[in-house]
Amino acid sequence: MKSLTAIAVVLMATTTLSASAETIRWARAGDALTLDPHAQNEGPTSALAHQIMEPLVMRDMEGTIVPALATEWNPSEENPNVWVFKLREGVSFHDGSAFTAEDVVFSLNRAMTEDSDYKELLASVKEVRADGDYTVEIETGGPNPIMPNNLTNMFIMDKTWAEANNAVKVQDYEGGEDTFAAKNANGTGPYKLVSREPDVKTVLAMNENYWGKDEFPMQVTGIEYTPIQNAATRVAALLSGEVDFIQDVPVQDLERVAGQDGLDVRTAPQNRVIFFGMNMGDADLENDDVDGKNPFADVRVRRAMNMAINRDAIKQVVMRGQSVPAGMIAPPFVNGWNAEMDGSSTTDVEGAKALLAEAGYGDGFSIQLDCPNDRYINDEGICQAAVGMFAQIGVTVNLDAKPKAQHFPLLSNYETDFYMLGWGVPTYDSEYIFNFLVHGRDEKYGSWNAVRYNNPDLNTKIQALASNTDLEARNASINEIWQVVQDEALYIPIHHQVLNWGMASKVGTIVAPDDTAKFKYFTLN
């Protein structure tokens, strides 16, 4: 039997161009939620967008920031509050229109509007302006040391195309809005949209005019993307040769796939943490059996819920060893990750019971847990295991699992009291986590903060990170914020996710830590 290929086994992207250049048939559990590049900050959504559209800078398959539509970027010599981006010249959108600074200004301003799911990444921005056709200046409220990190998934649209197709406004995804931009796209990326049938199939063809045709292997000439929610069906499609690449091999099928001639499993730690969130902000909960008060408002209850989770059992039984137990909601990839905090979560059933009794819930209570069933590795299985663990401390949990397209709006619309979420960090910095998950929700911050936590002093400290260029002091502040997050038990960390990509052996790639397959880097041998 073949062993699982580790991330250290790098399949060189500089392989001689193969005569087998062809369409790759790609499948994963869930589809992109939309093609509107600013409507949903969600992994599979941005993964599809990366094939069609491009940001100013991006991360390569190893996670390193590299040029995309910008060729160079530096802080301004005249004004430390300004980043200057020099744009790539001679680039065209798929419809043949020229890419210029006007498109960047339009796109970044669009991404800062109310319905954008990316606005937290640009919360420090005061103005975006063009200096000629190929220079863009981004001015922030103070010197922002990590602004380029915030732009790796900030896709650029064609301003003229958006205006012509009534797509200037970002799609209100949570409100159920459907728009032209939700099902159509005109990017500068390596692949053009041929057809789009949500939750069924998306077909892409190589952009023959792509600026990077001579810089990347570009051996994948077309993409057929098919979401297959059922794990057994997804694996069967790979085993039969119906698809070439699945991004989420179920842990129970790893040896089966790796053991078949002509197939490989390649594995790597992911830049993502899986956790539960609890509505601690409302005076009363909709989905519990406690009248007139909110159990999660008491930190002792939140700590008890955290202590009930047996992360090692989830790792061994549910994940078949394919996870790393977590004690904080930051992956080890991220600036601000703390080994001591990450190892702090321990199972203590009796201690949890004592905390519940002390908080006045000695007889327990019941609560609904909302969980996706097509987004994370074994997401519903994790939730099912947690239900039994919470029962051991007297908390009755009623599980409601549904597809991510129905699950995520529950968080955005404040319609869940207890939920699962996974969080990756494309900036590789804790500020990203704080902006989305810890800062109180307002017009610029906290769009994924469904726990309803709001600490004005901590909000101020979080906002200050964007303009703190003293990196030692900034890191000290990050650690202080994490200490509050941990002490307040804002979330229940479960584990750091491990990626398992299954593919035909002819497919040459490493596993990207952000779980984004960028097919322009792939080779076909």
Radius of gyration: 23 Å
CATH architecture of the largest domain: 3-Layer(aba) Sandwich
Number of beta-strand segments: 19
Q: How far from one another are the termini?
A: 22 Å
Largest sheet: 9 strands, mixed
Share in helix: 25-40%
Helices, by number, come to 15
CATH topology of the largest domain: D-Maltodextrin-Binding Protein, domain 2
Flag low-confidence runs. 1-20
What proportion of the residues form beta strands (DSSP E)?
Answer: 15-25%
The first-level CATH class of the largest domain is given as: Alpha Beta
- What integer is the average pLDDT? 95
Based on helices, strands and strand pairing, what is the structural class? alpha+beta
Structural domains: how many: 2
Quick structural gist:
With 525 residues, the protein is an alpha+beta fold. It contains 15 helices and 19 strands. The protein folds into two domains: 22-244 and 506-524, 3-Layer(aba) Sandwich (D-Maltodextrin-Binding Protein, domain 2); 272-498, Dipeptide-binding Protein, domain 3 (Roll), CATH 3.10.105.
